[in-house]
Amino acid sequence: MTTAVLGGGISGLSAGYYLLRRFGNPLTIYEASPRVGGWIRSEWHKDRGFLFESGPRTIRPKGIPGANTLELVEELKLPIKPIPRTHVAARNRMLYAKGQICMLPNSPKGLFGTVPPFSKPLYRPLIHDLTTGGTLAKNEDESIYSFAERRFGKEIADYAISPMICGICAGDAREISVRFLMETLFEQEQKYGGVLKGVLYSRFKDKVDESKVGLFAQGEPKLYTQARQEKWAMYGLADGLEQLPRTLRKYLGEHNVNVQLSSKCQNLSFNSDGARMSIRDADVPVSHVVSSLPAYQLAQLVKTQHPSLSGQLLNIPYVDVVVINMQYDGNQLLKHNGFGLLVPPVEQLPVLGVIFDSCCFDMAGNTVITVMMGGRWFDKWFGHQPSQKELRDVAQRYVHQILNIKEEPKFSRVHTLHKCIPQYTVGHKRRVESIRDYIRSYKLPLSLCGAAFDGVGINDVILSARRQVELLPLPGH
Ligand SMILES: Cc1cc2nc3c(=O)[nH]c(=O)nc-3n(C[C@H](O)[C@H](O)[C@H](O)COP(=O)(O)OP(=O)(O)OC[C@H]3O[C@@H](n4cnc5c(N)ncnc54)[C@H](O)[C@@H]3O)c2cc1C
Question: What pLDDT score does 212 carry?
Answer without folding.
Answer: 47
